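Support request, please re-run this one:
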Amino acid sequence: MDEHLLFLDESLAIGAIKYFCLAGYIISREDYTNKLIPKVNALKQNIFGKTDVILHEKDIRDLSGIFKCFTDTLKRKSFWTGIHKILYESDIHVIGIGVSKNVVTKIYKSRYINSDYNIALHSLLENYVYFLERNNSKGSVIIESTNVTADERLRNLFHDIVSDGTLFLNRSAYQKHLSTITFYIKQDNNTGLQVADFIPNAINRKISGLKPKPYSTINIIDSKLYDGHLGLKDRFGLKVIE
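Re-run finished. Output below.
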């Protein structure tokens, strides 16, 4: 049985951003180890002269810390060209869920409503496990650590889903194909999570009807959306709940 990894990140509903977005990409462990990590490290070495730089889109766009060097237009363009090339050439499948603020604030007026994260994770894991089944693969989820309490809450939710199953897939699918959820802190310099950081904000701006930011990755993301082997990107790749 093959092995795939799902690297996840999130984008919150703030201001003109109308959705909570949980999104990331699926990649085989072999491609992650032998292709993605070396390519990202080569880009870091080329731009910064070292590989221990932790890529974070917000800091990059804010020209914060080490990314002040991107006041140099040519260096900034070279970096973004490199990121786009890595995403375009990688054999990845993007999956994401957008949960509208209206779902929890206007439609379901219940004290028992699930959190945005709960709603998103159920749908996203269902699409991930469907991918794993279709590819005869075992999968793991990798996500950035927030704090001990939040990590524990998310880990418990993950195991509840694996134990119970979801709307379309029963627990047997989860227990056969889904293995673990792993948390890394930002300082761990995890390559997969740094690449995932360039996905949810671009998606959230698109589904919120906002103009893409300069050097946006959205066109590449659109081309990499998982379609369930059925051409249904809006169901298996990017599902919007509103």
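The chain has a mean pLDDT of 96. The domain at 2-241 is CATH 3.30.420 (Nucleotidyltransferase; domain 5).
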